[in-house]
Design brief:
This is DUF4132 domain-containing protein. It comes from Paenibacillus radicis. This protein is α+β, with helices and mostly antiparallel strands. Strands 10, 11, 12, 13, 14, 15 and 16 form a seven-stranded antiparallel sheet that branches. The chain has a five-stranded antiparallel sheet with strand order 5-9-6-7-8, with helices on one face. Strand 6 and strand 7 form a beta hairpin. The N terminus is likely disordered.
Length: about 700
Amino acid sequence: MEPQMLPYSFFVEAYTQEGGAMQDLMPYIVNTAQIERAHIDEMAWYQLTLAYVEENMAELSSYFIAYLHTQVNTPQAKSFVLTLLMTHDVQRHAGIVIPYLADDSKLVRNKAVVLLSSSTDQAEAILPLLAHKKPAVRESVVRLLSQWDSEMVREELQALYKREKNAKIKELIANALQDQLGIPFQDERSVSAEINTVHLNWLEHETLPRIRLRASNELVDETVTYAILNAYAVQEEINRNWKAMELAAPLRAEDLSMLADEVLQRWLGKGAPANRKWVMAFAAAFGDERVVLALQARILAWPLESRSAIACEAVKALLLSPLDSALLFIDQISRKFKFNQVKQAAVAAFSQAAGIAGITTEELADRVVPHLGFDAKGCRTLDYGSRQFTLQLMLNQEIRMTDGSGKIYKTLPAPAAADDVDLAAAALMEAKQLKKQLKSVVESVKNRLEQSFATRRRWTYVAWHKLFVDNPVMHVFASGLVWGVYVDEVVTATFRVTEDVSFTSEDGNKVVLSEGDFIALIHPLELEEGARKRWIQQLADYELKQPLLQLTRNTFTVLREEENALNIMRFAGVTINGLSLLGGLTRFGWSKGSILDGGSYIEFYKEHESMGIGVQLAISDLAVGMEDETVTVYEMDFYSAGKVTRGSYIYSEIKDEDRILPINVPKSLFSELLFEVDAVLVKRLGFNEDWQLYRT
């Protein structure tokens, strides 16, 4: 067992008792508590320092303020102290942060913008900075005020717009007013040859695709293209640009999507520099499926290249896309993704989209499942001119292609002499993209169904019918699953959806549903053994393969000896390869716990916020990037979701008041969480008989 360090307060007390002044200790505390300045062998001391600061901010805040005004000399230290103060008490310390909007350091100004983003009550104190002589300061203030929607702010921004000489700031104000306040463009509607293209030189903008007017098919002047691109280039951040949207309104969508794809590819070809991340915002706003697929591919790849930050920005960019497939992907990685930083960015982005729509995230997830062009019967036609091909969506989530004579094709054939070359080329491209889209949709839907299965999500009959019957893509999933009708917590009927969109019981009898019904996926724990076997037989008779393991799923219940236990020990002592454990739990949506000294972690966790329950699986040390070693599994604990603090070099602790006893976890969720761990531990290597000797 490692020796335990004394609390940091002992060090502070000893220092002051020896005559040291607390104010003189502040530089050391600030330096030690900044994680980016901590050496790998000082992480435990860093953690103790930060914990001491956070626990004693009420007493320390006055010292930090004095230190900020008299001793801080680096932008990093200023940003750190400002963050500590605002985290402790926003109302009390907002006034202290305001002057730092005019700091000489861009890092500090940007931090002040972030920290003051919710301090709308400070508007009167901030507005005078719009008259600051330095453009960089006015820009920071405009970026802050652009987030607020009030009459006073609108009037001040309008006034600044009229007198402002800096083109970049004018662009920011114009976009802010249009975005949040609905003011139409006036002089900005006209585009002249004076557009500054300095931000676009790297693009070789003279060679970009030309754009035509939608109404006349006439080529527009290139300055319009440059104005649209420049509007995004000067805003820097990943946001919708309403000036660009206004300029693009009369232009051909097909030309804009081609331009978006070309600009994105040129940026990617130059290494995707972060200082030109605006390209992703432009491409997502105007691009088609090519852009969505390209950004999805980079979001998956960038974290492997240590570029998680730019991957998070790409997630924000996808939020600007008008295509449902973009939101579908965000929803997918918000539920299950290996890299937690990107996953959390997706969670935030999807929550933001749901908030804008005024619905829950689950309701939004229902809305964005695309039909992919299939009709009510699951068919879609592609045209070669002289002949047509029917694409049929099958119950196994695959596509069957046939021609007019009924001949089946694995892939579309090459165009024949009698075919229309352009139509055939378009059909081939459409089929190629459709396969990629369907693969992405199927993966996303399976993840959602697994989560809905675990959390026992229920739909009203109307919402369920719209999603699982009216949507041809979801219909193929619904047909292979068994559903339950619920009154309160009681299952009153079970059924499946037939190909002719009727509902049948396990005995083959017709089931009639009504608008007042609540419907959910049935869980094996809710079925009597006889009914479960009849359902299994019926699916086998119709050669239906379940899209997720439902009826034959292993189930788990609290054992008698666990009824009064604090945690679950039935997996304790099992050994497994770390990569197998990491990969398996990640696929089920679990995440690594806090990264501790030496880059190691000692737990996995998963939280179901909708049910308010989290679970933590303790393990022996695993080092990030070196998981190919044997690891021992320890206990499994349940707690109130959101109550356990995690982060770099923060030891997770479940407080007694936040702990949930296994017996109090909903039966189906308990079963599912143990099912996931058990499924991963199928690859176990053995059992460590002495595991308790190493459990500290």
